[in-house]
Amino acid sequence: MSEYVRVARTDEIAPGTMKRVEVAGRAVVVVNVGGEFFAIDDTCTHEEASLSRGTLTGEVVVCPKHGARFHVKTGRVLALPAVRSAAVYPVRVDGDEVLVSPEAQRTAGVPHRR
Length: 114
Ligand code: FES
What we know:
By secondary structure, the chain is mainly β.
């Protein structure tokens, strides 16, 4: 099992905000949803825009390029034009530090409906 990686202090990512970090060479965006932290691939599965440059609404991150939406807890894609879900990563909080596992988890299937 891979080691968790320290990526930020909890006070660096306020509720309702996100921060791009690197975990084992991958760009990941850490999101604070009401005091709970989640981590999702920073790279949009459509045309590789950086999701951390997008917007966060509740538990949904919106890609800045064409507006695809991803659920930050599951990585599930919720809106076109992306059709593939994004990987998510387990997160732990240790004191005032946010740690992310480099072990990606991916939601199976194409979940959105046309
Ligand atoms: S690059 Fe994200 S929706 Fe197109």
